[in-house]
Amino acid sequence: MSRVPTAHNAAVEGQIAKTVLMPGDPLRAKFIAETYLENVTCFNTVRNMLGFTGTYQGKPVSVMGHGMGIPSIGIYSYELFNFYDVDNIIRIGSAGALSDDLDLKDLVIAMGACTDSNYANQYQLPGTFAPIASYTLMQKAIEEAQKKGISVAIGNVLSTDVFYNANKGANDAWKSMGVLCIEMEAAALYMNAAQAGKNALCILSISDHIYKGTELSAQERQLGFKNMIEVALGII
Fold first, then answer.
1. 149-204 pLDDT tens trace
2. Domain range list for the chain
3. Which Pfam family, just one, is annotated for this protein (predicted)?
4. d(CA 145, CA 159)
5. What SS3 class is residue 226?
6. H or E element: which one contains 52?
7. Does the CA dihedral 42-43-46-47 come out positive or negative?
8. Residues in Cβ contact with 43 at an 8 Å cutoff, skipping those fewer than 6 apart
9. Is there a binding annotation on residue 3?
């Protein structure tokens, strides 16, 4: 019996491309589909987590929101990898900078994703799992950014479960370990990809700086991440 559609995704077999770009905000997915893709069809509106398939420079690609946090991306990416036979998921999202070398709209490629989440507990591993990006996708993203003259920072990020953290020393501790920025999803995406034998990458655009006190507006977060989107599209 077919496992699709699911309770979260109305798509049927064949409606989703092998490569999916995933912003957190479903309205950003809609913006990307309408701005960059041709021959677009909408495959999902369940819970308003919009999903679209089209072509970019003649290549099929899908774009779908994943919501906020590890539980949300955990569901959507698991279903895409395991039920819809997606091979590559590229998260394109926002992040809060920790590194003094980062500024608003700078790009970060998450080579690894630290986390304070308990997501890996389900695998019952005899140790601590280190979630990492697909080297192939990461190399392509670096090359695409270089080709476009876009500088990127590459390294560890933090995928946290906590947006408003009661532990006031947490950011200082992660920064002291060289973590570049904070987001909320990459670790689960990388774990799901590892278990499924698929490829995942997280490309982030800095929306605020935790130490410098600067931030983008909600409108700028939704529409202003042109470099990140174009680097991701360039590697499909």
1. 999 999 999 999 999 999 999 999 999 999 999 999 999 999 999 999 999 999 99
2. 19-233
3. PNP_UDP_1
4. 23
5. helix
6. strand 51-56
7. negative
8. 9, 10, 11, 15, 16, 51, 52, 53, 62
9. no
Could you confirm whether 101 is annotated as catalytic?
A: no
Token output for 214: 């600067």
Write down the mean pLDDT value for the chain.
96
SS3 140: helix
Peptide bond into 60 cis (omega under 30): no
End-to-end, the C-alpha distance of the chain in Å comes to 31
| CATH match of 19-233 with 3.40.50.10700 | no
Q: At 111, is the pLDDT very low, low, confident or very high (cuts 50, 70, 90)?
A: very high
Q: Is 101 annotated as a binding residue?
A: no
The predicted model scores a pTM of: 0.97
Marked catalytic residue, from 85, 87, 116, 208: 208
Answer yes or no: is 66 a known binding residue.
Answer: no
